[in-house]
Amino acid sequence: MRVTELSLTHFRNYRALELKEIPSGFVVLQGDNAQGKTNLLEALFLLATSRSPRAHREGELIAWETPQDGTAATRLFGCVRRKDGPVTIELLLMGRPEARPPTTAAVAVEDPELLPAQSGVRRRLRVNGAPRRALDLLGNLTVALFRPEDLDLITGPPSGRRRAIDILLSQVDPRYPRALQRYARAMAQRNHLLRRIADRRAGQDELAPWDDTLAREGAFILDSRRSALDRLAQLAGSAHRPLSGDREELSAAYAATVPLAGPALGDGGAAVAQAFLARLGEVRARDIALGQTTVGPHRDDLTLLVNGVPAGSYGSRGQQRTLALAWKLAEAEYLREVTAQDPVLLLDDVFSELDAHRRGCVMAVAGAYEQVFITTTGAELSGQMMPEGSRYVVRAGTVTPE
Amino acid sequence: MSRLIDQLNKLPGVGPKSAQRLAYHLLRMPEDHARALADAIVEMKERSILCERCQNITEASPCTICQEAARDAHTICVVEEPLDLVALERGRGYRGQYHVLHGVISPMDGIGPEQLKVRELLNRLRDGTVTEVIMATNPTLEGEATAMYLQRLIGPLGIRVTRLARGLPAGGDLEYADDITLARAMEGRQEVTS
Ligand SMILES: [Zn+2]
User: Fold this and answer.
1) Residue B57: which H helix or E strand, with range?
2) Rounded to the nearest 5°, which phi and psi values hold at A24?
3) B148–A202 C-beta distance less than 8 A
4) What is the mean pLDDT of chain A?
5) Per CATH, which fold does B2-47 belong to?
6) For an interface test with A, which of B111, B114, B141 has the most A Cβ atoms less than 10 Å from its Cβ?
7) What is the pTM of this model?
8) In the structure, how many helices (H) and strands (E) does chain A have?
9) 3-state secondary structure (DSSP) of residue B138
């Protein structure tokens, strides 16, 4: 698939941007730093997922004052040409009036890692002109975003890896984000109940329905993640070989906080649910004391292994960066495989840290996708390295075809 | 005037703008109409009590539904709110008893079984007349959890516990379902097993 049209109104440093007839192939966005290149890729990511890849404070997305009448200040609009026809996506972002008290729904999600934190931003979505919930947006435009922070996938805390696989699975399976949402809400309810039990305002018998829900939704999340991770590791291995020139064996390990009998079966995890439920019973006293649910997919880790060694403790910084790149290329390939359509690749400043050989590898792989947005200051993509494609100059919130 | 606007604004579905519009409408109303409205509100508050059996809102206890002799005494349909009961009655497919919980379990809102009419429900099951309890809580996370919780209490009493069939929109309220959907959901109800 590819994006044919993008229009941004009052989004970050864009007052009004209108890009029409965006071609396929490489779309090179060239400009100095802080001119709006990354913001443009962020806009495409938002149209795919309704979430920002970087905003813990999503209020920043609305750089312009929201009018008093409550209409949207910030609008993102995109046309996508899919195999099965064109789709339009419109996303309106509005600041939440401060005076309004928080609703139950707004405080429902306690774990900001599993799902993005709730923010003061209200969003309104339309797909082909019809209103949609955020959950129903996913899958219309699929993207794989590459950015310098990807190194965190290898060296950072587990939360980043959980988030990466959650976003990946949410793009390919509509059941997955629903399971995440139900899981997060059931956990928020259970955590409140744990505290009420500790205060002797509730009985332990009240835990059962929440434990059941957590086990059922959690088992589905676990099973989906493990199935995807196995495939991702294989794809990362294939991507890694030409990049590194070595013959390292890549594999992946899913470190679960509930006992897992046997491999992922792709069956929604009926057996896992039983084990999960039993484990919740075992840790109940501890959970009551802490007022928190201490086991489940929100506490799991997933790691890439190189010759059996966790990638985070393998090799040099450069080698770790190559591993991160292999992971991202594997994500893109996974999206292509599962949806039978090319995702749109978003490469944000990925070349500055790579040597010429690796740049060449990435360009060769990326070139096989229908559309690839690349940001660059121009310095690192000189001469032959500059891909054949359309070029746009990004300067102070304007984008001009060259 | 601003006091009235504040009060109207507290009503569900009434934003600040509608509250203003309503207040100006009331201002232009003939005085006897305004008084009739105010009286109706106060009177409703003063006269409404909960039915001692089904916990529905009524002016006389037991309520007319509980007093209807032709209704099946062996079946109780458990609903969240009085309006859910109204919706099911409108559908006319169901001729048994009701029980109104007045909410769902939601620890984050400080609501547990103690805050709902759960004990009253269990008391009604004691004499062995009731053989089936139909869970008609809404298909939300909290509605499902409440049904599961009650099933665990009622199942061991040897009473059949069933759940309304799917077909209700997920997360959708009983209150807004159409009559045919409701009748189908009632007919296709299924055994709950834990
Ligand atoms: Zn009654």
Assistant:
1) strand B57-58
2) -85, 180
3) no
4) 86
5) Helicase, Ruva Protein; domain 3 (1.10.8)
6) B141
7) 0.86
8) 10, 15
9) coil
